[in-house]
Write a structure and sequence with these properties.
Elements lengths: L8 E3 L11 E9 L2 E12 L2 E8 L4 E4 L3 E5 L2 E6 L4 E8 L2 E8 L2 E9 L18 E10 L4 E10 L5 E7 L16 H10 L4 E5 L16 H16 L4 E11 L1 H11 L5 E5 L6 H14 L5 H20 L3 H15 L5 H4 L3 H12 L2 H8 L2 H5 L6 E6 L7 H14 L5 E6 L26 H16 L3
Parallel strand pairs: 13-14, 13-15, 15-16, 16-17, 17-18
Antiparallel strand pairs: 1-4, 2-3, 2-10, 3-4, 4-5, 6-7, 7-8, 8-9, 9-10, 11-12, 12-14
Length: 463
């Protein structure tokens, strides 16, 4: 699910600065006892500069950001799209400053970073990998977007089953790289060594894939996945009658859509949502309220505010109407928000929220009910989730998947809730997003073996 806000930093100045900002700067933001590393890549040219930001713990690189004002030995970054601001002073070779958001202030000191730290994980595939890989390109014929990916081919394969891998929400490369982990590279490696051909690809607008990610919706990603399926069915050594899809998180919704049309022969749903998007989004927001220090009355006001906001969004037919309706709602109900949030002002708050919510992706997501498509699926399905998943609740969503498949009259399915695993299928303590980067394991071995053995049984036959 989407957990990253994308930013763009553009720096400007009215005179030649004595402080040299060009280079890579890094620091750690302390939020609720957790450290969030931030990295800024700054290029200064005379009185002007430009930059990009990385949030390694969130798996975000080359993030675009808003506006800035440079003064002698001082820099001020105004991050309008998230209602934040960073002000720092150049001192003794570092930038000492303060990060502000929603009326709260956090110290953030930036130090020069000589070179980007290359982090490898124990499960990253290493040469010799024991199978062949080939870069490929295929086209979504509906909008003529060319996508790039990698096909992994087992060495001893004459005719083999194949799968495509579809990533979760957010702009992902073919390895589904996030938090310095490359789960799709690890999964493809494991499946190729199990005599399964694998196609993984960059999301549109990411890596070598063309297209505009910002304008895409789940339906767009479904069209891209459909193009990937058509491509891999014609690929050498692929058994075109044994082609499946593995979708993680939002990719699970894509898998459900395509499985309901029998475009694939089997489907693996990894931490897939299976209830209306509005329930998921609102559930995440309400869960966050419980972890705040607000008193009971403030929590009740905020819960009512969030429910009302979702009702407005569901009733709006277009993004333009949603923006107008949300702005009207915020004017009437702004007082229900906590004092710290009201500190940014109504205009700024409305700007941030409407930009985030009144988008084609969000509006399609909250209105989509996957239960309708689940009730049409006739092919074999493996649905798996971790019991520590804090983004897609295992109990609720696995039950909904099973109910939908039963409604379809489908008895060829397997539902698995794996103990101790989070949303990324890592062994976890709490399942919190903030743990993801600290965990060395990319994909739990039990999960990998479950997926490969299930696919082998469905395609090569039960042992």
């Amino acid at each position: 699910m989407r957990i990253i806000t994308l930013l763009l930093l553009i720096f400007s100045s009215n005179f030649c600065l004595k402080a040299q900002y060009s280079g890579t700067w890094s620091g750690k933001l302390s939020v609720q006892g957790q450290e969030l590393p931030l990295v800024f890549h700054i290029v200064q040219e005379g009185n002007s500069c430009s930059a990009k930001m990385d949030s390694p713990a969130q798996g975000a690189k080359g993030i675009p950001v808003g506006e800035c004002e440079l003064k002698e030995r001082e820099i001020q970054l105004k991050l309008a799209n998230i209602g934040a601001r960073y002000t720092g002073k150049f001192k003794n070779g570092i930038i000492e400053g303060m990060f502000e958001q929603s009326g709260l202030k956090f110290p953030l000191n930036l130090k020069p970073q000589v070179e980007e730290e290359k982090i490898t994980r124990p499960q990253d595939p290493l040469q010799p990998i024991g199978y062949k890989e080939q870069e490929v390109f295929f086209t979504n014929e509906k909008d003529k977007t060319t996508l790039a990916g990698t096909v992994s081919i087992p060495n001893n394969c004459e005719t083999c089953p194949a799968v495509i891998l579809v990533s979760g929400s957010g702009a992902q490369n073919r390895d589904s790289e996030v938090f310095n982990h490359r789960p799709f590279a690890v999964l493809a490696d494991h499946l190729a060594k199990s005599n399964i051909i694998v196609l993984r690809y960059d999301d549109r607008g990411v890596g070598k894939s063309k297209g505009d990610f910002s304008k895409a919706t789940t339906s767009t990603f479904t069209e891209d996945a459909s193009a990937a399926i058509s491509f891999i069915k014609k690929y050498p050594k692929v058994d075109s009658n044994q082609v499946g899809i593995i979708g993680h998180s939002e990719g699970g919704l894509v898998a459900i859509k395509l499985a309901s049309k029998s475009e694939v022969n089997f489907a693996v749903l990894m931490a897939s949502p299976a209830i209306p998007g509005a329930q998921i989004l609102m559930g995440q927001q309400l869960a966050q309220i419980e972890n705040t220090s607000l008193d009971a009355a403030q929590k009740k006001d905020l819960e009512d505010f969030i429910k009302g906001q979702m009702d407005v969004l569901l009733k709006s037919k277009t993004p333009v109407k949603a923006r107008a309706n949300l702005n009207s709602y915020y004017k009437k109900n702004f007082k229900k928000l906590p004092p710290a949030t009201r500190g940014m002002g109504l205009e700024k708050y409305a700007q941030i929220q409407t930009q985030a919510l009144a988008s084609p992706w969000v509006m399609e997501f909250v209105k989509y009910d996957p239960r309708l498509d689940l009730s049409q699926i006739k092919i074999p399905v493996l649905a798996v989730n971790g019991d520590k998943d804090t983004q897609v609740n295992a109990e609720v969503n696995l039950a909904s998947i099973e109910d939908g498949l039963k409604a379809a009259g489908n008895s060829d399915y397997q539902i698995e809730k794996l103990n101790g695993l989070n949303h990324l299928f890592q062994p976890a303590e709490t399942g919190s997003i903030m743990e993801y980067e600290r965990i060395e394991t990319t994909l739990d071995t039990e999960f990998l073996n479950l997926v490969s053995s299930w696919i082998v049984a469905k395609t090569y036959g039960e042992n």
